[in-house]
Structures are given as C-alpha cells and as structure tokens.
Design goal:
Shape: elongated
Number of helices: 6
Number of strands: 5
Largest sheet: 3 strands, antiparallel
Distance between the termini: 15 Å
C-alpha cells in the first residue's frame, strides 16, 4: 500500500487523507444505519405506545409497544428470528441472514476504508446498498412497510446517501493516487 504522506509534496497527501476520512465516515454511517429506524410509527401508534408502553408488540421477540415506535433492521431481524424459531416457515430463515448481511457488509466496507482500500471499500458499500434495496423491495412486496401503523424510517435513505458518499470518496482516492504515481 502506498504511503499517502509521500505523494506529490503534500497536496496529494492531504487529498488522499481527506478521501480516506470521507470513506471511513461514510462507512461508519452505513454501519450505523443498521441501528437507525427502518420503520417509524405514525402519530396514532406513537400516542398509543406512549399510553401503554409495556404492551407487547411482538412478544416472541421481546418487543414492546414503546420499543416498536422506531424499528431498526436489528429489531426486524430479532423479530423474524423469533418467528422462524416458532416454526412459522422457511422464509424467515432466508430473510434473517439477508438482513444481517447489511451489517456484515457495512462492517467490511468500514474495515477496508480504514485500511485505505478504496476499491474494496466501494465494492462492499455497493453490496450493502444492494442488500438494503433488496430488503426495501421485500418489505414493500410483503406489505411490511408501509402499513397501517408504520412508514419508512430514515435508514433506507441513509444507506443510499452513505453508499454514494463512500463510492465518490473511493473514486476520489483512486484519482489522487493515480495522479501521484503519474507525477512520480
């Protein structure tokens, strides 16, 4: 790996460092999106949950009404895992690893971004985005979201923005490195 401090007298080094920082931040945001609201309750559900916060929303998954106001992908995965363990079909056995792969792919993108590997980081960022869009399609197709109580949360949008930023920063880093090699 080329040491970014040795490129073209400082200007390229600072640009490579900035690109790397943007890649890391975008990958962190992408990983954080796994824990941000994927589904967000409407006002009626929020009011009802505030009045009865300890009522079970999904008892088998340990999710109360208060917990269900904003549901992250982690909470959806927990709920689907619990439903699948109750013997409610094989579809949940497929869906849980797909949801989990969003976190794993994001973590790999973060690792590669931190190591200064723009192409690998961008590939895993795009794969994470593809998985998030697959989950959006699945939830829409099955009527999970939007529904009578919940709309889309912020996480699906965060995945798009973070993936675009990650890929843009990766391209930026590759361009800076190539310019430095050309000058050398």
């Amino acid at each position: 790996m080329e040491d970014v401090r040795t490129t073209d007298g400082g200007g390229g080094a600072s640009q490579a460092l900035a690109a790397r920082i943007v890649m890391v931040v975008a990958a962190v945001v992408m990983l954080a999106a796994f824990f941000l609201p994927w589904g967000s309750a409407g006002e009626d559900f929020r009011q009802a949950a505030a009045q009865m916060p300890d009522v079970w929303f999904a008892e088998e998954a340990g999710i109360t009404a208060a917990d269900a106001v904003d549901l992250s992908l982690l909470e959806y995965a927990r709920a689907y895992l619990a439903i699948g363990q109750m013997g409610s079909g094989n579809a949940f056995a497929i869906l849980v690893p797909i949801i989990g792969s969003a976190a794993v792919l994001s973590a790999l993108a973060l690792l590669l971004a931190a190591l200064g590997k723009p192409i690998g980081s961008a590939v895993f960022g795009v794969l994470t985005l593809a998985v998030s869009r697959l989950i959006v399609w699945d939830f829409t197709d099955r009527g999970v979201l939007p529904n009578a109580t919940h709309e889309w949360g912020v996480a699906p949008t965060v995945y798009i923005v973070a993936a675009v930023a990650l890929v843009a920063a990766a391209v930026w880093m590759v361009v800076v490195r190539r310019r430095a090699k050309t000058k050398a």
